[in-house]
């Protein structure tokens, strides 16, 4: 990919992004999302730049990816420009489409050690990080940030600094650092920001699905979804798409298979949390919850799914929202 990657994609009005999410947006889930809508651009979970540089084993477990995940964006966090630069060079060598810098994370231990959203108030370092990375690799550099620190007065100046340091895209989460995880979404400042930048801007926060985004997009380039996408990768499809029961069961099977193939025993344990959630709006999920949270391997997943298919064979082609007790 070259530095025009985001600009060229932004010309496609319907593009959506899967948000980075620690512990969730791993290769298996990204493959599921792309399988349902190949136009979605996936962001990885965040990884420490230091960790990527110093552990070949760890880098080799998170950077190689499946062809279907392309174009894949890897998100990293850290605090000093030199480490970011080294990580960027290494990441580029794994055929990654772009690197995203986490200036979003508000966790206390992250901010106290000058990582994540603390970079919003450490503007010289933030500028240097983007500039050093942009100079060192051919792939685009993007930043995921917040409305700013305490209020949004400095959002536009901050974003312009990043643009001047050669950032190729900015994603803005509609809360300040101080608002952490609460507060109602306010779109005004994101729309205003777009008026001041040449690079594409992604809005992130409280987007329900593709149709919701269409009403909010205005002149922004993209939207990014996290919470509403999980266990509902169909949210990226238009017309308020609702999957049928068989689509959900097949997706559960696919997700588990990839997860367990990639992570072995760890994958079997992780798949438990996903399986139950996929069926959260299925009225009879409670009959299967106990079994699903105890699965040990893929064979067990398959046999439980088969049981559900047999017991509810007359519902398989029904949309999940039309299945009523
Ligand atoms: C548990 C959790 C982990 C997250 N991990 C990351 C992360 O690694 N990197 C990041 O930039 N954002 C992360 N986020 C934030 C999401 O990407 C997103 O900005 C946030 O959930 C708001 O979008 P939504 O309203 O669509 O959920 C995380 C959020 C949560 C709740």
From TrEMBL:
Keywords: Flavoprotein, FMN, NADP, Nucleotide-binding, Oxidoreductase, RNA-binding, tRNA processing, tRNA-binding. It holds the Pfam family Dus. The active site is at 105 (proton donor). Its cofactor is FMN. The keyword Flavoprotein applies. The keyword tRNA-binding applies. Residues 18-306 form the DUS-like FMN-binding domain. Its EC number is 1.3.1.-. It is an enzyme of class 1 (oxidoreductase). It catalyses: a 5,6-dihydrouridine in tRNA + NAD(+) = a uridine in tRNA + NADH + H(+); a 5,6-dihydrouridine in tRNA + NADP(+) = a uridine in tRNA + NADPH + H(+). FMN binds at residues 75, 144, 173. One of its GO terms (molecular function) is tRNA dihydrouridine synthase activity. Belongs to the dus family. Catalyzes the synthesis of 5,6-dihydrouridine (D), a modified base found in the D-loop of most tRNAs, via the reduction of the C5-C6 double bond in target uridines. This is tRNA-dihydrouridine synthase. It comes from uncultured bacterium (gcode 4).
